[in-house]
Amino acid sequence: xxxxxxxxxxxxxxxxxxxxxxxxxxxxxxxxxxxxxxxxxxxxxxxxxxxxxxxxxxxxxxxxxxxxxxxxxxxxxxxxxxxxxxxxxxxxxxxxxxxxxxxxxxxxxxxxxxxxxxxxxxxxxxxxxxxxxxxxxxxxxxx
Length: 143
Fold this sequence. Notes:
The chain is α/β, with parallel strands linked by helices.
């Protein structure tokens, strides 16, 4: 009986190893590189480029404010642009164990900074937190 069970397990394992399954992506992800940011996302390329333009405009504004030709970024920043709030939800930050209702957030790091944003919210409020955190980032790196 034990020998039969072991043979059955071996056959099942071999079947799983040799079974060829085709896995298809449910959605496509796009990557866009701007002068100061790398952007990736499951939003449309047009929406990702719109986010890139907004961030580059703000970067330029900060450079003018600090009266510099360009701003030094100590580490690169990757922006993840989710197509809607539903796609963004699993990555939303928690506050006291509950999901927060934010359109985006900034996560600094030693080697790489991240910005996560939902493309569904198009108003200025969706960028307010990110712009605020970018000020801190650029002040730390340039002053």
